[in-house]
Design goal:
The chain is elongated and about 50 Å long. It is mainly β. The protein has one domain: Lipocalin (Beta Barrel). The relative contact order is 0.22. This is Lipid/polyisoprenoid-binding YceI-like domain-containing protein. InterPro entries: Lipid/polyisoprenoid-bd_YceI, TTHA0802/YceI-like_sf.
């Protein structure tokens, strides 16, 4: 099985919420060196995301997000595919996410939607020893739960 993912339309989206509202931070500035991500038994992608390239749609929120992830000290978030297996119409991958020198492995189910490889996984700030921030003297509390969405444009 060989699967190719092209550079355009790639994104990683992190959805979270507070006790007041929801937030969404997206990084769509990354691409493979060759222009195409390849998924074969011998070659699985390593995706390096620059934390400062996440955009939360609001300058203050984007700055807070980058500060939470300590982007000055840890500028990259690395998503490494450990394995990738076809299961019926979908794919199952073991994905290692490395953030702030903490690594965590997740089983992620991917499906093909409109020529894109889409994967979704619930993760937690606490998986990476990050304490969810509080704002305005604790009146606004960020919840520990995050929804991570991967989208890689594919050519199968």
């Amino acid at each position: 099985m060989t699967l190719f993912a092209q550079a355009q339309e790639n994104f990683v989206q992190i959805n979270g919420s507070t006790n007041v509202n929801k937030f969404q931070c997206v990084n769509n500035k990354f691409k493979a060196e060759t222009g195409v991500y390849t998924f074969t038994e011998r070659s699985l992608p390593n995706i390096i995301l620059k934390v400062n390239e996440f955009d939360c749609g609001n300058k203050m929120m984007t700055k807070d997000f980058q500060k939470i992830l300590n982007s000055d000290k840890y500028p990259n978030m690395i998503i490494k595919f450990i394995n990738f297996t076809k299961v019926q119409k979908n794919y199952i991958a073991v994905v290692e996410v490395k953030m702030m020198n903490q690594s965590k492995r997740y089983n992620v189910e991917f499906e093909i939607e409109n020529n894109k490889l889409i994967g979704r996984k619930n993760v937690k700030f606490s998986d990476f020893n990050i304490t969810p921030p509080k704002k305005m003297g604790g009146m606004i509390v960020v919840k520990d739960d995050l929804d991570l969405t991967f989208s890689l444009a594919t050519k199968i």
